[in-house]
Amino acid sequence: MRVITDMVELRAWAMDHRATRPRVLVPTMGALHEGHLSLVDRARIRAGTDGVVVATIFVNPTQFAPHEDFDSYPRQAEADLAMLEARGCDVVVVPERGALYASDASVTISESAIGAGLEGVSRPHFFTGVCTVVAKLFNLIQPDAAVFGEKDYQQLAVIRRMVRDLDFPIEIIAGPTLREVDGLAMSSRNAYLSPEERAQAVVISQSLDAARAAMEEGMVDVSTLLSRVEKQIATQPLARIDYVAGVHPDTLEPIDSVGDDGLLIAVGVFFGKTRLIDNLCWRRNLSDAG
Ligand code: PAF
Question: pTM of the prediction?
Fold first, then answer.
C-alpha cells in the first residue's frame, strides 16, 4: 500500500497511473471503524482486481466551525493505515497539515438547496467545507467512482448534487450504515461518549426502528411519527435533541404525509458535548400495493 502525503507527488501518481482503471475513492477523516472499512470493500468491488482503491485521511478544517471539535477530533493515523492495508486498499492519501489549502484560499463551493435544512441549519458552514474539499480531492485524484456512507445521508445527497451540477464524470456509490450490536450507528464520534451516554445513545436507533414499524403498519402522518421519535429520545435524561425532521428522501424538503416516495427521518442528538446523527430512509414497497 502506497502512502502519499505530498500533493505534488499525488498529481504525479495520478498522471503516471492514468491508465489503471477504474480508480475508486473513499474519502475519510480517519478514526476509522468498520463502517469506513465497509466503504473500502465497496470500492474494491467497483474497482475489481485491475483497478485501484484510493482512500484519503484528512480532518478537513473548513467543515468545522470554530466552536466545534476540529482540535479534539480523534486522530490515529498509524492504526488507520494498518486497517486500510489489511483491507486491501492500494493507495492512501494523507495530506500534510496545510498541504491542501493555500493560506489565502478564497474559492469555495456551496450547494444551496439540498444542504439548506437539517445539518445545514445546525452547521451552516459544513456543506461548503465538505463540497470544497471533496471537489479538491476529485480534481487531485481523478477517480471514476467515489463511495460515501448513508449514515451521512444529507452529505451523500449534497455530493450527488455537486457532481451533477458541476459535471464531475464520477459515479457516486452509497454504502449502507453499519451499526453496533445494539443498533447505534457506527461513528468516529462514538468514542467521545461516556459509558452512561453510550448506553443511552441506543435510543436513537430504537426510536427510528419504532418509526419504521409504525410506517410498515400504515402510519403516514409525519408530525405524529416525528413526535413519537422525539418522545422516545427524550426518555433518556442525557439526550438533548438538536433536530428531528421528516423530509422527502430525494429533495430533502419537509413533507406532511408519507407518500409513494417514502420518508427520510433525520435526527441530530447531543449527549453531553457529543453530537450524533442518524437517519431512517423508509421507501414504500410499491410491489406490495394492491
Ligand atoms: O464524511 C466525512 O468523513 C467527511 O465529511 C468527508 C467526506 C471525508 C469530507 O471531509
Answer: 0.96
Buried b (16+ CB within 10 A) or exposed e, 128-160: bbbbbbbbbbbebbbbbbbbbbbbbbbbbbbbb
144-159 confidence digits (pLDDT tens)? 999 999 999 999 999 9
CA of 224 from ligand 1 middle (Å) equals 33
pLDDT at position 9 is: 97
User: To 10 degrees, what angle do helices 195-216 and 222-234 make?
Assistant: 160
Helix (H, G, I), strand (E, B) or coil at 191: helix
- In one-letter notation, the amino acid at residue 118 is L
Residue numbers in the chain where pLDDT is lower than 70: 286-290
Q: What are the φ and ψ backbone dihedral angles of 16, each rounded to 5 degrees?
A: -60, -35
Using the mean position of ligand 1's atoms as its centre, give its distance from the Cα of residue 27 in Å: 6
36 given a catalytic annotation: yes
CB atoms within 10 A of CB 96: 10
- Residues whose CB falls within 8 Å of the CB of residue 214, separated by 6 or more in sequence, listed in order: 225, 228
Sign of CA dihedral 38, 193, 158, 65: negative
Per-residue pLDDT tens over the stretch 276-287: 999 999 998 866
Domains defined for the chain, CATH in brackets:
2-175 (3.40.50.620), 188-282 (3.30.1300.10)
Closest ligand 1 atom to Cα of 27: 8
